[in-house]
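lol forgot to send this yesterday, sorry. C-alpha cells for the thing we talked abt
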C-alpha cells in the first residue's frame, strides 16, 4: 500500500461527531414547520453537517467529476456498443452536449471530465489523469497491474484534494463502454453476490446478451480467484481505471470531510472498492439514486438507501446531479427558514412543554 493511500485511510473519521448532529436536529426542530415534516431531507442534512464537521452545512459550491475509461473486456462482446463510443462521448462531454452537461448547467454544478484511461491519443479539454489507454481483457488476464491500480487510486485522491479546496459537495459520474461488466465483477467479489444477480443489461442487451455476459463473468472470476481481503489485488484483476480512480476520490474526500454523492451502479462499485480499504467510508457518502441496472439493488444493500428512485440507468452522473439538487434544497431550507421565535409563530411543542 502506498504512503499516500495509507495516510489517507488513517485520516478518515471513524465516527460522526454527536454534538454536531444534536445541534442540527435542534435547529430543524426550531424552524417554522411541524417537527420531522421534511422527512429524509432533515436526516440527510444532519449527515451532511456531520460529514463536513460543522453545525451549519454548506452546499452552494457543487462539482461533478465524470471519470472516463475504456475496458478490454469489450473484446468478449459484453456490450452493444464498441469501445470507440467512450472516446466519442468524452468529446461530447467536453462540448457540453451530454445529459450530464445539461443537468449540471441547470443545477449550477461545475463539471470536470477526467480521462482515467480512454483509448487513443490524449484528448483536449479533459483533466488528464490517464493511467493507460484502457484496461486489458480481464477474462484472459489482469485488467491492470497492481502498480497501475495504485496509481489510479492516488490520482483519485489528488482530485479529491483539488475538489475539497474549492467545493462543498461533489458528485461522481462515469463513462466507459464495458464498465458494467467490471462493476458486476467487483460486486461479486466484494459483496459476495452471485453472477446471475450481479449482471444486467448495461447499454441495452437482450436476454441472450445478458446470458453471454454472465458466462463471461463466471469464467473471468474463476480465472482470477480474487481475495476480497486484498482490495488492491481485486481492483487490478477485474477493475477499470475510472472505477478505481473513483474509489481513490471517495477515500480522499472522506479524509477531507467532503460529502460525495455517488451516481449509480458503476460509482457504487467504486464505493465497494473504497469500503474494502476503509469500511468507515460507508457513513461518508450519499447514494444518489437506485439504478435500473440489475445488480444495483444488491449493491445498495451493502451501502445505504438512495436519495432518488426514478428508474434511471444512463450513468454519466445524471442521478447524482439530480440528487445533489435535492440535497442542496435541503441545506437551503435548513439555513434560510425562519425559526418560530424569529417569525413570531407559536411553537406547538413549546406550548405543550
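and heres what i got for the seq, position by position
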Amino acid at each position: 500500500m502506498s504512503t499516500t493511500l495509507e495516510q489517507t485511510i488513517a485520516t478518515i473519521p471513524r465516527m460522526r461527531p454527536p454534538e454536531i448532529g444534536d445541534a442540527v436536529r435542534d435547529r430543524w426542530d426550531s424552524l417554522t414547520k411541524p417537527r420531522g415534516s421534511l422527512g429524509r431531507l432533515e436526516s440527510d442534512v444532519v449527515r451532511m453537517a456531520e460529514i463536513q464537521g460543522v453545525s451549519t452545512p454548506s452546499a452552494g459550491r457543487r462539482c461533478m467529476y465524470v471519470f472516463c475509461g475504456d475496458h478490454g473486456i469489450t473484446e468478449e462482446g459484453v456490450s452493444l456498443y464498441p469501445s470507440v463510443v467512450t472516446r466519442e462521448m468524452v468529446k461530447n462531454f467536453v462540448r457540453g452536449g451530454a445529459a450530464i452537461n445539461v443537468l449540471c448547467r441547470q443545477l449550477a454544478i461545475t463539471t470536470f471530465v477526467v480521462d482515467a484511461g480512454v483509448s487513443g491519443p490524449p484528448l483536449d479539454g479533459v483533466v488528464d489523469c490517464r493511467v493507460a489507454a484502457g484496461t486489458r481483457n480481464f477474462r484472459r488476464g489482469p485488467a491492470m497491474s497492481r502498480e497501475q491500480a495504485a496509481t489510479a487510486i492516488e490520482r483519485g485522491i489528488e482530485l479529491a484534494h483539488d475538489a475539497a479546496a474549492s467545493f462543498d459537495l461533489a458528485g461522481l459520474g462515469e463513462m466507459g463502454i464495458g464498465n458494467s461488466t467490471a462493476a458486476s465483477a467487483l460486486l461479486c467479489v466484494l459483496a459476495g453476490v452471485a453472477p446471475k444477480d450481479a449482471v444486467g443489461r448495461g447499454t441495452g442487451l437482450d436476454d441472450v446478451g445478458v446470458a453471454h455476459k454472465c458466462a463471461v463473468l463466471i469464467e473471468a472470476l474463476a480465472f482470477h480467484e480474487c481475495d476480497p481481503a486484498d482490495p488492491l489485488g481485486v481492483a487490478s484483476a477485474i477493475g477499470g481505471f475510472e472505477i478505481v480512480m473513483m474509489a481513490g476520490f471517495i477515500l480522499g474526500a472522506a479524509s477531507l470531510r467532503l460529502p460525495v454523492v455517488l451516481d449509480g451502479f458503476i460509482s457504487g462499485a467504486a464505493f465497494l472498492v473504497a469500503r474494502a480499504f476503509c469500511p468507515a467510508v460507508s457513513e461518508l457518502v450519499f447514494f444518489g439514486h437506485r439504478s435500473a441496472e440489475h445488480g444495483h439493488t444488491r449493491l445498495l444493500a451493502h451501502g445505504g438507501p438512495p436519495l432518488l428512485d426514478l428508474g434511471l440507468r444512463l450513468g454519466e452522473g445524471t442521478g447524482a446531479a439530480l440528487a445533489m439538487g435535492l440535497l442542496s434544497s435541503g441545506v437551503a431550507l435548513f439555513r434560510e427558514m425562519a425559526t418560530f421565535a424569529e417569525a413570531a409563530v407559536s411553537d406547538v411543542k413549546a406550548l405543550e412543554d
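Residues 139 and 222 are 9 Å apart (CA to CA). anyway ping me if u want another try
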